[in-house]
Design goal:
four-stranded parallel β-sheet, two-stranded antiparallel sheet, alpha/beta, 6 strands
Length: about 250
């Protein structure tokens, strides 16, 4: 009896193994798929802000030093322009006037040579102040060296570096130009806020004049005359004639 049970159990095990061998392998459950998270939208590019740098050529080294400190701003869509960007053969006055007209920010590097230059002070700075009065440009004055700027129109505005302290009087020129770059950054941020506000505000609707409504013209109505309906009348050629009276018998 035990041998029979043993043989039966062995045959059952062999059958189970055969069935398992012939059956297709069960697919292992894969990793649970999760819906892809929405990719963050690319940051909108900041609008370009153009800076016009006005300086005396005797302060070219200071202008170049300032350009170095403005490098982080340039990577954020800020461009600077000075007369050294003109190409050979370009008209000096035309090119400068065009760049000044297209700029959002005017940076004047004040020094004794700048105040002594009629072109720097009486043309570039004066034009910039005119645009500032119209609300189309921001003007920033940077004091490079001691000069009599307090007797000029620049005295009525906040100057850079902080409190109008000349760059040459700072312990380090890099500290001074860093202060100037930070001040210009704040001005650029204000300009961009104004750009965003102008872009968000709806454009004024054009008023359309109401169309003139023409009065309906009075139609001339002709009423046809009724034909004579009396008995014994007839119409001949449009005229109504009465019948001739009957003569009595003799």
């Amino acid at each position: 009896m035990a041998s029979n049970l043993t043989g039966a159990s062995m045959r059952a095990r062999a059958r189970t193994r055969t069935e398992k061998a012939g059956a297709p392998p069960k697919a292992k459950p894969g990793p649970r798929r999760t819906p892809h998270a929405a990719e963050p939208r690319a940051k909108a590019e900041k609008p370009e802000v153009r800076i016009f740098v006005s300086y005396s050529h005797r302060d070219a080294d200071a202008r170049a030093r300032l350009e170095t400190h403005l490098a982080p701003l340039k990577r954020e869509g800020v461009t600077t322009w000075f007369d050294g960007d003109l190409n050979a053969g370009d008209k000096l006055d035309t090119g400068i006037a065009r760049a000044l007209r297209n700029a959002h920010v005017f940076v004047g590097l004040l020094s004794p040579d700048y105040l002594a230059s009629n072109y720097c002070w009486k043309i570039e700075y004066k034009r910039a102040m005119g645009r500032r009065a119209n609300g189309t440009m921001r003007v920033v004055a940077v004091v490079l060296r001691p000069c009599d700027w307090k007797s000029t129109t620049a005295a009525g505005f906040k100057l850079l570096p902080e409190d109008g302290r000349e760059v040459t009087r700072w312990r380090s020129a890099d500290d001074a130009f860093l202060n100037v770059a930070q001040g210009i950054r704040r001005v650029v941020a204000d300009v961009r806020k104004q750009m965003a506000a102008a872009a968000a505000s709806p454009a004024p609707r054009k008023r359309v004049a109401p169309k003139a409504v023409s009065k309906p013209s009075a139609k001339r109505v002709t009423v046809a005359k009724p034909e004579a309906s009396r008995a014994g009348t007839r119409v001949v050629g449009g005229a109504i004639r009465k019948p001739a009276s009957k003569r009595g018998k003799a």
